[in-house]
Here is the input.
Amino acid sequence: MTAAGLTGFEKIRDIILPQTKNLFILLLFIGFIFSFYEDAKSQFIFRASQGTGTELINHWLYRTYQSNLLISPEYANQSIFKTGLIVFSITVLLFLVLGSLILLSFKLFSKLKSSSQKNISESKGRPSFVIATICIAIILIPVLLALLKSQYHFSDNFILITFPFAITLVAAFAATLFAIIFGISSRLAFTKLLSGFNSKSLLYFLSIYFLQIIPPLCIVLCGFKWLSWVGYNSDSLIYFVWIAGHCILTLPLLGSFVLATHFSVKEDELNYLIAYRISRSSIVNYSFLKRFIAEYILTLLFAFSFIWNDAGLNMVLSDRIPSFAANLQMLFIGRAADYSKATSFVLVAVTLSLACIFIWQYIVGKATKLNEAK
Amino acid sequence: MMVLKFEHVTFGYRKDKTLFKDLSFEITQPVGKGFVIGLMGVSGSGKSTILKLILGIEKNYDGKVSVTPSNPIISYVPQESVLFEHLTPLENAEYFNRISNYKTKFNRELFNEVAKTLQIEDVLKSATSVNEISGGQRQRISLLRAMSIQPNILLLDEPLTGLDEEVKDQFLQTLATLIQRLSLTVIYVTHHRKEAEFISDAILYLVKEKNIEVVSEVKQTNAKIFFNNPPTVSALNATKEIRVNTLQFKQNENGSIEPVEATLFSTDSSIRLMSFQEDTIQFSDDSGFEFKVAAETGTYTLLKLKSTQIVLTIENELFKTKSNLQVKFISLSGNINLYDNKGQFLRATKIQNNQIER
Here is the structure.
């Protein structure tokens, strides 16, 4: 029995599960959808091969299956079943170890927190901020070391980074705008449904993520014919397609974040404004745009980060539009491979993460104050 | 003179679940004076929905909701004040001065006057965030904002929820003063007798009896009469104090009563219900209803009638004064309100030694 008088099972059944059920379903669905992309991404980025030591477990499974097929299909099937089972068991084990470590650190953190005499408002959100900053710093160390070692000069490679950066920024602005418009119009259209995260709004979130499954399905059904349909050879159109593609691909993640942010615009507040017959433009202005400036900036950074790091659409259109993923790949495995140059690309991604952490910290602080006031 | 009319209104949040059916009533403001109607009813009877229909938040209903003269300025103060955390308290209070629809209606003179009456000038001057001010101050800002456009009708939806008693009293007093000074028509939603009794001129009670989902009737009466003689048993239960006891009974041919355990509403028309204050309870050592002390709290003693689950409540001091160790029986003598088996108020009368006056 625990201090609260509930057994571990009862605690999970009555407290943890009801609170996390919807989120669990959503994350499961997101994981499923994104698994469509993950293999493609890792193939694109690593050009997985045994020789370069960049082979991941999925690549290894695929390679051994292909080579076993040469012996016989039956043998290949039996072999993939056995090795798959082992891989699955190891994965589960790793999850358990990871879960235990997280629980252990959470317990340790809770103990430290309860023993400290700090003001609650001061301590809220700060440890996570410190942990995140330390993580970023750890990532930065090898990157900076590599840069120092190679005596890298930013100015020499400024042009290499400028265009991908600029076009990504444009796409990020477009994607953010798209997500904000989507988020605001959804909130205003479904005042009750989207007032919080529950079993009903979960369906709405799931349907947004379902959008992500459309491109892989289209590619499966149409092959690469879609490139000619969208005007791959047209200079101006291809940029539009690239930006529009990113707007659609980032919508589930950005849209969900914006929708979740808009939960704080309560149904009562919207009813209040409707009751006074306040115009839509004023509602959008005061209840959303002016209120969530920090959240929208964070959305922009998310958008930039997703597009900058995207290895799907960017790689497909890399012949026409230079991007971080394409350039990074060339710098790692191309003829003119240059790891120090490649690190400058990584630096942009890391800087983005740092900026996100600071803005997130500000938003958490703001939310904490609001909750305390209530 | 302001007249608000509901004519044969039928409404439900879901098609298969009707809340109001053919509901009609009329609220008329007396000429030249402020008028407050307390809107009461049990939980789920649709008090807040009435406001939503007036405000036009809910539009899908049959029937007609009208206000005369037409196009009045209606202000609304919800249960939980709506304040924007990115605006300062002053900017929140002056919100309508920023909105094009209301800019011309915003009355600076009135704003300053109400701010002074509500005693929140200091809060408005300070540049602190609305997140740092108390619940009472938030609600005052909400009221100030509502008043700033000089409304004809003010709708208040349980505005004192979450405030402590002292702040509640201050708020109600200030509100009453403002209503009279500005000759406002006010609909005040509450389920607290004390608030409604203090502020209301009349009560509009939404009749929703147990096990019945639909509201199709309202009881509208002067506030004093409503609280002295609640028009239905549900109104009695919704507004009664702990000192008010209820007892279901059958009347014998000789006029004496016999307590019965029954669930309202009984089909047996001989079963009635009476309500009475604790001072109607008398004690005797030889006749009446046999009882025993079921429990004693810091303030009240609970008396259980023998062989039944009927419990009457009396203040400890009163019980000690009126009884002694020998008493075993309760008899009722004093003022009572009588209700029929459908829960409708019949009359106020007297009872003497368990015999109701005819």
